[in-house]
Amino acid sequence: MFAAVLVLASAGSLWWWRTAPVAAMLGACAVFIVNITAGFQVGVTQYPAFITFYAVFAFASLRSRWLAAVALAVTVGVYAIADRGPIDVSAFVAIAIATALAALLGDSTRQRRELSEAQAREQDAMQERLVLEERARLARELHDSLGHAVNVMVMQAGVGRHVFDDRPEFARQALEQIEGVGRVALGELDAVLRVLRPVEGEQRAAPEVATLAGIDTLCDRIRATGRDVDLHLEHVPLTPTAERAAYRIVQEALTNAARHSSSGRIDVSITKAGRDAVITVHNTADAVAVSTAGSGRGLVNMRERAHLEGGTLESGPVGDGFVVRASLPLREDPA
Fold it and tell me: Is residue 143 in a domain?
């Protein structure tokens, strides 16, 4: 009867083999020692000790491994002393093999689990980076497109207010420009919101595509505020993303030029230089008046856009105003 109780107690120690492997092994070893000192056959009481030894190597700390090794050594020592029969060398060889196999399997399980956890952490970090990059991209889009539209509308509204009595026709044109720019801004805002919260099955008009062909429209908007804008645009083969970056850089540079100065010519040029497309926006207003034009978020966005395309961007005051100059790599010829 007592032998059966010991067998049940030995099996019961496996209940905590995963959650508390050290305690489970100490319990299994204790039951085994009581079983052997009581004169009963080893039987099945030996197996929980090796199973929990594997669990310690698989789920417990390094310090716990040493404790488990000592506990198992003490258990084997008690078995050698308490065994009333002749010493069986093959039994101790089998014990050594079972011990080594349990330790190796446990360590292998630990390594696989740690590798899986490391991969999961790396995947989570990658997803977080992607989320942050997407947020930064959307922030750039909102700043560049809506910031440009709002600034243009404010300037045109100011011009229209000043000439409303003397030149009502010009004021009416300014209002028409404000309406047009506002519609474009709403379209771009709608596109950004659809990225943030897409609606399945919803059909809406696509926003205006930011390409080099639209730069002339950007210049017209600034001209409508009363500024003189000179555009020199060469054919430069760019990838779609680089072309969009060029458009946004010109857009933000024009916005800064119009916001930070009220007079002077703005020269915009996009030319080919070697393997790069060079984008230059030169505000020929007083350099003192535009000395702060490159200190805000807009310049950071322009530099990020250029770097994302493998290009560079420089800006700063010059003798006759303020210059923004970017270089973007040209699209490689498939041939």
Answer: no
260-265: long-range contacts at Cβ-Cβ below 8 A with a sequence spacing of 24 or more? 260/285, 260/289, 260/290, 260/292, 260/293, 260/322, 261/285, 261/286, 261/289, 261/290, 261/293, 261/321, 263/227, 264/227, 264/228, 264/321, 265/227, 265/228, 265/229, 265/230
CA–CA distance, 242 with 308 (Å, rounded to integer): 9
Burial class (CB in 10 A: 0-12, 13-18, 19+), 61: exposed
Q: Does any domain span residue 260?
A: yes
Of 201 and 273, the structure prediction assigns the larger pLDDT to: 273
Q: Are 3 and 21 in contact (CB under 8 A)?
A: no
Q: Which domain holds residue 328?
A: 212-335
In a domain, 279, yes or no: yes
How far apart are alpha carbons 278 and 249 in whole angstroms? Answer: 11
Q: Which residue has the higher pLDDT, 332 or 122?
A: 122
Q: Which residue has the tokens 């070697």?
A: 274
Last residue of a domain, one of 31, 60, 87: 87
The CA distance from 160 to 139, in Å, is 31
Q: Which residues contact 225 (CB under 8 A, 6 or more apart)?
A: 152, 155, 156, 159, 258
102 contacts 54 by C-beta, under 8 angstroms: yes
Is the pLDDT confidence value at 62 over 90? Answer: no
Q: Using one digit for the tens of pLDDT, what is the confidence trace for 70-96? A: 888 888 888 877 765 666 778 788 888
**Last residue within a domain, chosen from 87, 120, 155:** 87
Please tell me the total count of domains within the chain: 2
DSSP state of 277: E
pLDDT for the residue numbered 282: 93
CATH number of the domain enclosing 320: 3.30.565.10
Rounded percentage of the chain residues whose pLDDT exceeds 70: 78
Confidence tier at 20 by pLDDT (50, 70, 90): confident
Instruction: Let me know if residue 171 belongs to a domain.
Output: no
CA gap 82, 38 in Å, rounded: 9
Sorted by sequence, the CB contacts under 8 Å of residue 152 that are 6+ apart come out as: 177, 181, 221, 222, 224, 225, 255, 258
